[in-house]
Amino acid sequence: MLHRMNSIIIQLTFIILVILQQIPVRAQDKRAQYPFLLSGSYFGVSIGYINYPFSSLHMEPGYQAESVHIPHTGVRIILFGHQFNKYLSAQISYMRPVDWVSYKNVNGDRSSHSVWMNVAGLTIKSKLPVKPKFSIYGEGGLGIITRNGFEINEVFVVKDANYATILTGAGLQYHLNKKWEFMLNMAWSPANKKVKQPSTVFYSGGFNFNMHPLPPEKVEKNLSAGYIFPKNLIQVGYATNFLGYGVNHFVAYPTWIRFLGKM
Predict the structure, then answer these.
(1) Would you list the domain boundaries of the chain?
(2) What digits encode the pLDDT tens for the residues 204-255?
(3) 3-state DSSP assignment of residue 223
(4) Rounded to whole angstroms, how far apart are CA atoms 164 and 251?
(5) pTM score
(6) For residues 53 and 71, is the Cβ–Cβ distance under 8 A?
(7) For 40-212, which CATH class?
(8) What do you get for the CA distance between the two ends of the chain, in Å?
(9) Helix-strand-coil split of the chain, %, nearest 5
């Protein structure tokens, strides 16, 4: 599994490097300006109420829980968004509860069993200004549901699930300035009876940070300051499986995405 993941990471890195080689390198001469890929992009965080009504109906036949605890605090992160114009943008998001669902005292075992679940999204966002500082928006696109169930005596009680679905949402945005905007929003994904997955709804408030191209006078001021980004960098990174392996499992299926190379 680890070898397969490393191979996928290496191949994705190679693809990204090939793409970057096709983009005109402007950072060498204008390092005081945002890079090509970041100009017009944004990142964001929302925190709020999440609900996915898990119950004993989502367990395999023959099992019954005394109670099901569903924590309702959730978070959604816009990992990367890009504005094509003032009306249209695309974004990659990640949504999950802060704590996991837990099934308690299943068939009298006096234990607690967790079900991990998260939603990754690739959506198109359409925005409509209604006031100088306010706009409404709707979004829709691909959602990837990943769920880690649990076993008792090596028998699945709530099965794992990884599948593609739709993800939709809507919201109200307040534009504080060119960089910061605050929002009230909701996101929704439908239930899937085949894998016994309930629907997911998320109501939240949060913010986006926008990166617009700097004006010429700001670029000139930055260049004349005497401190600019170097042409070469040494970077150190750290990897973790905090987000889980759901996306890896999803793209590993032969019917979805095929990677070239010998594993």
Answers:
(1) 1-38+216-263, 40-212
(2) 999 999 988 777 777 777 667 666 666 677 778 877 766 666 656 655 555 4
(3) helix
(4) 10
(5) 0.72
(6) no
(7) mainly beta
(8) 10
(9) 15, 45, 40
